[in-house]
Known about the structure:
3 strands, 3-stranded antiparallel β-sheet, 3 helices, alpha+beta, single chain
Amino acid sequence: MEDDVILNVGEAVKLLDVDRTTLWRMHAKYQMIVPPARFSVGKTGYLRSYLEQWKKDRMDEVTKDVG
């Protein structure tokens, strides 16, 4: 299995095309995504595969509702 990439918050907001506040609200207020995980001392972030799958799932929901 290929190693997954850990994205820091800055990289995650770019991938999702949201700002930091929105990213925080997505997990803290609305529970849309899981909060960032601590992978080691000083290394907190999101797995790229998780965020990409989350985006794909949201798009699948939207296209299902539209079409």
